[in-house]
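Before relying on records like the one below, remember that each one covers exactly one chain. Contacts with other chains, cofactors or solvent are not represented anywhere in the record.
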Amino acid sequence: MAMGSPPSLDALSPLDPETFAVESHAVIDFIAGYYRDVEKYPVRSEAEPGSLRKLLPEAPPENGEPVEGILEDVQRHIVPGLTHFQSPNFFAYYPFNASTAGFVGEMLCTSFNVAPFTWVASPLATELECVMMDWMCKLMGLPDRFLFSGGGGGVLHGSTCEAVVCTLAAARDRALGRLGHEGITKLVVYASDQSHSTFQKGARIVGIAPSNFRIIRTSAASSYGLTADGVRDAVEADIASGLVPLYLCATVGTTGIGAVDPVAALGELARRYGMWLHVDAAYAGSALICPEFHDYIHGAELADSVSMNPHKWFLTNMDCCCLWVASPALLTSALSITPEYLNDVSEGKTDVIDHKDWQIALTRRFRAIKLWVVLRRYGAAGIRAHIRRHVEMAKCFEQALKADERFEVVGPTRFSLVTFRLRPRYEGDHAVNALNRKLLNAVNTSGRAFMTHFVVDNKFVIRIAIGATMTGMQHIRGACELLQEKATEITTTATTTI
C-alpha cells in the first residue's frame, strides 16, 4: 500500500551533534561566569512571590528561539531570584556540594540518558552502581554485611526520603508476615525529637498511624542524642499496651544541632525487641571516610540499613543518596512488582540485580557514573582533605564565637555545624529568643550570608553549616564579623528601647 508524502516541514533536528557542541559550550561558558560572579548576588533570594510570573509571557512561544537569547533571560530573570546554594557564604540547611567532577559526571549521566531499572535495560550501569556502593561502603568503614559479597548490598536513590520509605516498607512487610495484614494498626516507629521529619512522613506513607509514631525526648545531658533507657522505656510501655515495636531510627549528625545517637546501644535494643534499625547519616556520613570519625558508626553491624547523601558533602552534585541494606531480599519482597513487559527472556542471566525492585519508582537515573567520576577525579585522599578543611573552619568559627562573651555555643561541634546564640542578658531573660530571631533576620537580609535556625530546649538557636565547595577561611571570618556587627546593632537598639 503506497503512502502519500507528508506535508513539508522544516527538520527540527533536536539532537544534532554539531549544534550540541556549539550550544553546550555556550552553556558551559555561562555556568563558569555564574560561578565567577556568584558572590556578587545576595545569598538568600530577595524575590517577591509572583514576581517571575509578571515577567514571563502568559503562553509558550510558537517558534523556537536561539540558545543565546534563552541564556540572556536566565541571567536577567532567573539568576537574581535564586537562593545561591553554591555561594561560599551559604551556611543554611546542610551543604549541597557541587564540583567540577560532579558536573562532568552529571553531564555524562544526562547525556547517556539511560534508565537502568533492570539489568538488561543497561547492564553496565547496574554493575557500576553495585561497584560504587561497595566502594562507598568500604570508604565509610561500614561492616562487610552491607557489601554485595557479604550478603547485603546498596542502591542509589534521589534522597534520604526515598530511602526511608523503602526501608519502612521492608520493615512493615517483615512484621506483617508474622502478624497478618490487620496487624498494621499495632506497629510503632521510634525516633528522637532531633530526627529528621522525613521519618514521620515516611511512616504515614507506609500506613503507620501518626498516633503510633513515638518522638522520644532528648536533652543536653546526652548532647541531644537518644539514650538506650529512653527508647527502652517507650518500647516496653508500648508492648504492655499490646503494640508491636517496628522500626527505630538512629541518626549520625541530626539536622538541627548535629547530634549523634549511640548506634551500638540502640542496635542491641533493636535486636532484643525485633525492631528494624536504620542509621541516618545523610550529612555526616561523608565525614565517616575520615578514620577519626569512624567511632560514630560503631555498632552498625547491628543495623538493618544505613543511608548517606554524597550530594550533601561529598562533592557529588544533586541528586545522589546511598542506601545499604543487610538483607536485600526484605527490601525487594516489599517493592518488587514485575509485569511481563519487564521480564528478561535472555538465557543465562538469572543472578542479576534489577534496581527497580530496590526503590519506589520504576524509572531511575544513571547516578553511579557521577559518583564514579568524583571518586576517580579527587580520590579518597582529596575528599578527606575537603571534609577536614570544613571541620577545621567550624572549629575556628566556634573559637571566635567563644572569644566574644556575647555569644554561647549550644551543643558540641562534631563535624562542620556550629549552633550558637546570643546569651541571655540576665537570669530569666525571656526576650533572648526574640533577640536571636532579630539577629538571624539581620544577617540574612544583609545579603552577605545565609544561615538558618533551630529550637532546642525552648531556645532559638542559630545554625551555621559550613560545607559549600568554594568556602574559604576568609568567608568564615566574614561571617563572624557580620554576626558581631549585627549583634552590636540589635543589642544597641534593644538597650536604647529599654
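The first helix runs from residue 17 to 37.
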